[in-house]
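Suppose you are handed a protein chain with no further information: no name, no annotation, nothing but its sequence. What can you learn? This example shows the usual starting point.
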Amino acid sequence: MEKSFLITDFKAMPDSQKVQTKEIQACIDACHLAGGGEIIIPAGTFIIGSIRLYSNMTLRLKSNAILKGSKNLEDYRDFHIPTTIKYLYDPEYIREWNLPPYYFYAMICAFQEENIAIIGEIGSVIDGQDVFDPNGEEKFRGPMGVILSQVKNVDLSGYTFKNSSNWSHTIDGCEKIRIKDVSIKAGHDGFNLHHSTYIHISNCSLETGDDCFAGYDVHGLEVTHCYLNTACNGMRLGGTNLSFSHCNFNGPGRYPHLSEDSYHTHAIFKYYSVLPDTILEDSEKILFDSCVIYSADKLFSYSFGDKELHQVNRPLRELTMENMKISGIRKTSIFKGNGEKVTLTLKNVQLSFDEEEPIFLEIDDSVTLVLDHVFFKTPTKIRNLNQELTFSGETTLIVENK
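A reasonable first move is to predict its three-dimensional structure. Written in structure tokens, the prediction is:
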């Protein structure tokens, strides 16, 4: 049986305005010295800066336990552990996004460990409190929520994360991740998965101000039965064997995009492939299956080689949507290989284009477009260079690349 360590035994006080980082870290350190176990957060509110977890450790939030991020930036640390996300060291990105040298800091951290869990019971909350940092990213973003970097075997479940000051969950270079029954409300990105592998996410609710999912060089991601609501992109991803099944994408965002003060969903799928990082494989086997999509500007945003879209490292080769119901797409989706061959397949799809622009989809000669039993509820135009094709009703067609 795991040993348990109660933070109040280490002088942590619930519902106090005093920052409890030192007391909670003392409890964590005692657990670490004992070889691992459970750190128990009881009911009540505890204010923290940065705490660090270690191997073979579960952070358990009991019912109605609340961890709140301190409003004082001096209460946070970056622990000087290098991340696998290489653009954070690139002068161009540092300048463009105003990335501070301490960018990689958070409320809850673990680095190069294994067997880490954060488990919440009913009513448990982690609240980032939208901490403002005038020297942070975009000159306002504060610390991350959770950073798990190069960790093997991760379990996250049961809690709500709200008001993240930057990404809610940074999961970089990790392996074997299981996430279920986690809710994210407001703030910035939901799950960032750069360089991570073997990830299963189920029964989660994401209502984010930025991307629900983000990351490149992601491998073996399975997302099932999740609710995705965003004021940015449903996902900005690149990698192999990425699947989303039985998910509900529903716009516009409930919470605002904080840098734009807007609510509309930008795109359901936006490709991500940053140049200053190491990506060894082209992206392929990306699948949406049995999902419902409602209300977004664009269904796709892919134009390989576009630096502004950060799609310049390795190209996308394959994306499939099947058994889908899609409605409320308003603007022209772009799907272009720009010389790199790619296949886009829509199979058993019902699609209604609520146009603000006359063209639903624009492709180029690099794209093989496969329409297999696609039912267009309204007349819908697809453009390939200067040629426009109009579809209505059920369509089966292959437009091969050259």
